[in-house]
Amino acid sequence: MRKLMIMVIVAAMSVMMATVAFADAKKKVKVGFVYISPVADAGYSYAQDQGRLAIDKLPYVETSFVESVPEGTDSERVVLNFARKGYDVIFGTSFGYMDPMVKVSKKFPKVAFMHCSGFKTTPNMSNYFGRMYQARYLTGIVAAMMTKSNIIGYVAAFPIPEVIRGINAFTLGARSVNPEATVRVVWTKTWYDPALEKDAAISLLDMGADIITQHQDSPGPQEAAQERGKYSIGYNSDMSKLAPKSHLTAAIWNWTPLFTQVVEQVRDGKWKGGESMWWGMDKGVVDIAPFSSLVPKNVQDKVNAVKAEIVADKLIVFAGPIKDQSGKVVVPAGQTIDDSKLLGMTWFVEGVVGNTE
């Protein structure tokens, strides 16, 4: 009888604890964001911050951010500071924040940590990203249907899987409509350096590229294309106002749906660590910016038709046959590349001119 009573008491205490946790979750959720570049960069951090501003309007959310935080020790300090101040959720928005966030998450088990674009997790740290390669595929179609030189320049940040995957998807989209198109890659080894990114674009224009695209946070490459009278395709956000005479479209982020779900789950006590969120066009996290008047109707119609197929899961970007740079078939017809291999992609597809170093 005594044993039964103890079990009843323990069960009652558990219910009380769950109720308290649920009640606490109903209070205002404090959310911190750590950015790699300035929020005014018109690029990656800007796009993340647009999502922050959206959830900041929710009555149960309070947000704060720190911008231009270098990867490494500095990011660990900033994340640690958010945790010590009692923030409920911390979003680390750059790949290089991964290990510092893992370290801090182990010291604060009651805080929800969300890391962008990485692969490591802990019991209270998940990662999130979007299938930007779907939007890249579409912008590749735009570029390949509008190039006259068949040379498309790609200003790229670092040779990590995220960037390589985007270059490959862009190239697959391009060559799906124009097999003669090639994509020349120049690495800057920086996420945000407007002058360097612009110089990289100029070097590609000097090689004969008549369209410039990018995996960079600044509009530098867009500006270079406009100054040379060539076309450009942006990234992260709609950069049309920054290069109106050259901008065709852009592969863009919309983090609002994902951020909203995370804070709702934390508020309701339903958030779980150790998970990976990799959302695509069907959930609105990635898309392309509105076409400019420079894009002919037949190009717009083609891209919109392919976009509908991607959203409906009728077209898989990385479906075989796919060849690598040497011409070797690496994905046979009828097969696809699974997510684990996409997340670790370190090789280029046929049509890319450049190396992965």
Automatic annotation (TrEMBL):
The keyword Cell inner membrane does not apply. This is Nucleoside-binding protein. It holds the Pfam family Bmp. One of its GO terms (cellular component) is plasma membrane. Residues 1-23 form the signal peptide. Keywords: Signal. Residues 28-313 form the ABC transporter substrate-binding protein PnrA-like domain. The lineage of its organism: Bacteria, Pseudomonadati, Thermodesulfobacteriota, Desulfovibrionia, Desulfovibrionales.
